[in-house]
Write a structure and sequence with these properties.
The complex is a heterodimer of chains A (329) and B (341). Chain A is mainly alpha-helical. In chain A, the strands form two sheets. Chain A has a two-stranded antiparallel sheet. Chain A contains 13 helices and four strands. Chain B is globular, with a radius of gyration of 21 Å. The longest helix of chain B is centred in the middle third of the chain and has 18 residues. In chain B, the strands form two sheets. An eight-stranded mixed sheet of chain B has the order 6-7-8-3-9-10-12-11, with helices on both faces. A four-stranded antiparallel sheet of chain B has the order 2-1-4-5, covered by helices on one side. Chain B contains twelve helices and twelve strands. The chains are: A mainly alpha (329), B alpha/beta (341).
Chain lengths: 329, 341
């Protein structure tokens, strides 16, 4: 429990630093959001008013203080001269360009990113582990070599290549799948599933290749351990030795990597989202960058950082369950 | 009475890119129930490889095993993996040098012992757990019910080796192979473990093969000793024979290099010159010839002529593989070796 509290405090510190750095970097940028918002027929008075509305006439520390405060208690933004926008807790800022709170933007985009992450992670974990296990058990055979080739291919080919090739084959040529995009599974589950097949496959192809190599290497390493010889000396069957003793030891580091990968993916799968035209968090962030929509950039970066911090804590807790040597007091 | 384990002309070769490694080259011995055989030799002499062959653990490696290993009438070399698996743990069991590495780090000690018991006994997990606690108690682990829930890293070195012994003996095997069981332990714990092995042997009547490089260890519990060098037996006999009347120059070297309590601390301990031979290019003739001080007294060319394993005296169980004739050996031993032992 004390460990957990310590980790949570540590995570909070990390997020504070990330937010301060991101805030600092983007607000120091030469791009002036007020200038962008002002448009072509800009007058100095209008400019000053916008600067005041956007609060960029305040010192950076004040802006940052208000931003942090907004996360915990919400805040109110001015719009024009009279209108006020309520931004409820957790308020990550307000995007004047899109006329929406960053929180609501993230909320809109999160389901698409979640859809990609959930399906792809199940697929890559399954395929990656299975391939890795089989090639470790059949080391040196043609199955192993085939799996190794697959892994090399998966790790070398990029998402934007595999994704486009798959789209070309299954959508354009064979007409088996609908053109890519995103619908909510609650509106049209079948359509959602069909549209998600390609993103899942593409992302899983890359990651399962990495996991296959990781699993294979882990299994082979464990198989040469003394305790595996002990297990065999007990008279256990080969399959029991492999499944219970080898896999149990080999899986621990994989769980760790999986947690971190998943955490990262939840912050947005930028390339996959672009290739398959899916409005997820990654695209929200990159679009914000190209539009110099600073509040959205800060918000999405913070959100992604939050997932990574959480994933780290979860992985460490999980590790203490999986490995008795690091079991907590 | 036929011995429980009879090994005849065992050869274990490993094909490698550099050539054929002859880890064991024509080894024969036998062990009876209730007896302890010590196999002694330095690293690479073929001791551990032999023990793995008896357990049939070479079956899935690239090792080429030939000869005959009869365990209670079943030939381990010829038997299928499934047949040998049935015998592992049940008829023969093994304990290893490094008990920390030999125990699975992610399972409790109790569950690992219970698993060994359940492999050959159709009982529930609960019954097996009771058996595991019983075995831990038997090997002298205090508070066994609580310690059964511990993980190997929470045990001390001596306790881990005790746990290994408990696991090995859980199915009451007739043959126990102990591969350097005390090497990783400090001396007082060594003595405790050896005493425990001796006690358990009396209780269960099993045959023990004790593999070690430490003559002090075999002196304590072995009935017979097999001295190996470069994959071959170079001397064998009762423990008494080998320790008080060694015949082979290699045995002399080993015995001379043991420090004595009453020895002069300023005198350098003698050692055997040279290094163990490469198993790919074993020296021709007598494998020990490059390191032997008495080659010129043999009367035959030790570098070309291969010595046979011959009885020291007619009808004796004491055998030696050396070109020196008996009279020469007695003379050298009495004049150059015995005074310093």
């Amino acid at each position: 429990m004390r460990y957990l509290i310590r980790r949570l405090v540590g995570g909070g510190v990390v997020l504070t630093i990330v937010s301060a750095v991101v805030f600092g970097v983007f607000y120091i940028l030469p791009a002036d959001p007020a200038r962008l918002a002002c448009g072509k027929s800009c007058t100095p008075e209008l400019m000053a008013r916008i600067r005041h509305t956007l609060e960029i006439d305040q010192p950076l520390a004040t802006q940052y203080g208000r931003f942090v405060k907004g996360i915990f208690v919400g805040r109110t933004y001015l719009k024009g001269t009279t209108a006020q926008i309520q931004c409820a807790t957790p308020c990550l800022g307000y995007s004047y360009q899109t006329d929406a709170t960053v929180t609501s933007l993230i909320k809109d985009r999160l389901p698409a990113t979640l859809s990609i992450a959930a399906g792809a992670s199940i697929l890559w974990l399954f395929v990656g582990l299975l391939t890795g296990i089989i090639s470790a058990l059949r080391r040196g055979t043609w199955i192993d070599k085939l799996a190794q080739g697959f892994a090399l291919g998966g790790a070398s080919l990029q998402i934007y290549f595999v994704g486009l090739v798959l789209q070309f084959i299954f959508v354009d040529k064979l007409n088996l799948l609908p053109s890519p995009g995103y619908v909510s599974p609650f509106d049209d589950f079948g359509g959602w599933f069909m549209q998600m097949i390609l993103p899942w496959t593409t992302l899983a192809f890359l990651l399962s290749a990495i996991y296959a190599r990781l699993t294979r290497a882990g299994m082979l390493e464990v198989m040469s351990e003394d305790y595996i010889r002990t297990a065999r000396a007990k008279g256990l069957t080969k399959s029991r030795v492999n499944v219970k003793h080898v896999l149990r030891a080999a899986i621990t580091p994989i769980v760790t990597v999986f947690g971190l990968d998943l955490g990262q993916l939840l912050g947005g799968a930028v390339i996959t989202e672009y290739v398959f035209n899916i409005p997820g968090l990654g695209r929200l962030a990159t679009d914000a960058v190209s539009n110099v929509d600073l509040p959205v950039i800060v918000g999405t970066v913070m959100f992604a950082a939050f997932f990574i911090v959480v994933a780290n804590i979860v992985v460490d807790l999980l590790y203490s369950v999986l490995d008795p040597k690091v079991r907590l007091q | 009475m036929t011995p429980f384990l009879q090994v005849t002309d065992l050869k274990i070769h490993f094909p490698t890119e550099d050539g054929l490694v002859k880890a064991v080259d024509g080894l024969s011995f036998s062990v009876e129930k209730g007896k302890t055989l010590g196999i002694v030799g330095e690293s690479g002499s073929g001791k551990s490889v032999t023990s793995l062959a008896i357990m049939g653990l070479h079956k899935e490696t690239r090792a080429q095993v030939s000869g005959e290993i009869l365990l209670n009438g079943v030939d381990i070399v010829a038997a299928s993996e499934a047949e040998v698996r049935e015998l592992r743990g049940k008829s023969m069991a093994m304990i290893f040098q490094d008990a920390l590495a030999a125990l699975h780090p992610y399972f409790t000690v109790g569950s690992q012992i219970a698993e060994a018991y359940r492999v050959h006994n159709r009982v529930s997990k609960k019954v097996a757990q009771v058996r595991a606690i019983e075995m831990l108690d038997r090997v002298g682990i205090p508070d066994p019910a609580k310690r059964a829930e511990s993980y190997p890293h929470q045990f001390s070195g001596g306790m881990r080796q005790r746990a290994m012994i408990a696991m090995a003996l859980s199915c009451n095997p007739s043959l126990l192979i102990a591969d350097e069981p005390t090497t990783a332990l400090d001396v007082t714990v060594q003595a405790q473990i050896l005493e425990l092995l001796g006690d358990l042997q009396k209780e269960f009547g099993s045959a023990i093969i004790l593999i070690t490089h430490d003559l002090g260890v075999v002196a304590e519990i072995a009935d017979e000793i097999l001295l190996m060098y470069a994959g071959k037996v170079i001397e064998r006999g009762t423990t008494r024979d080998l320790l008080t009347n060694p015949q082979h120059p290699y045995a002399w070297g080993l015995l001379s290099s043991i420090p004595r309590l009453e020895g002069d601390p300023t005198v350098k301990l003698p050692y055997i010159e040279g290094t163990p031979p490469s198993l790919i290019k074993v020296p021709t003739g007598c494998a020990f010839n490059p390191r032997c001080k008495y080659v010129d007294r043999a009367g035959v060319d030790c570098t070309t002529s291969v010595p046979q394993l011959l009885q020291v005296a007619i009808g004796s169980v004491h055998e030696v593989r050396c070109h020196l004739d008996h009279a020469n050996r007695v003379e050298i031993f009495n004049s150059e070796i015995r005074p310093f032992l």
